[in-house]
Amino acid sequence: MRAVVTRVSSASVTIDGKVEGAIEQGYLILLGVGPNDTEAVCDKLAEKICNLRVFEDEQGKMNLSLEQVGGSMLVISQFTLYADTSSRRPGFSKAAKPDLAIPLYERFMDQCRQRGFSVEHGRFGADMKVASVNDGPVTILYDTEQ
Hints:
By secondary structure, this protein is of the alpha/beta class. The protein has one domain (2-143): D-tyrosyl-tRNA(Tyr) deacylase (D-tyrosyl-trna(Tyr) Deacylase, Chain: A, 3-Layer(bba) Sandwich). The chain is built from three helices and eight strands. It has helices spanning 39-50, 66-69, 98-114, and strands spanning 2-15, 18-23, 26-32, 53-56, 62-65, 72-77, 119-121, 128-143. The strands form two sheets. Strands 1, 2, 3, 6, 7 and 8 form a six-stranded mixed beta sheet that branches. A two-stranded antiparallel ribbon has the order 4-5. Helix 1 (39-50) packs parallel to helix 3 (98-114). The longest helix is centred in the last third of the chain and has 17 residues, at 98-114. The mean pLDDT is 96.
């Protein structure tokens, strides 16, 4: 799995002109699923992101977790994280097919909810407009294959 986690002051996703999900302080997570991903890989990634400490403490150091600041998550499915960029026109055959990707996308969000987080989301496969106010900016890239 691949995830781009951005610390945000706010973020939202709009589908067909309607806001489907919105958060204030927290993480905007773009989540891609690969063809070899499993539930175990998904659970481990969710644990890592839920425990990530990138919010500033009283001394201005990135030392606080999402839980400690009372933040939320906006999770957006993003098959383009598996783009093959060897040519000028990217290919997407390295992304998982929906029959694998959808259950793992949903499991990731469930794992975060089970840890007590408020999780907003887009709609898998929809044409989405994502807006965010990046904080820092702080952006962390996860790739479970590395």
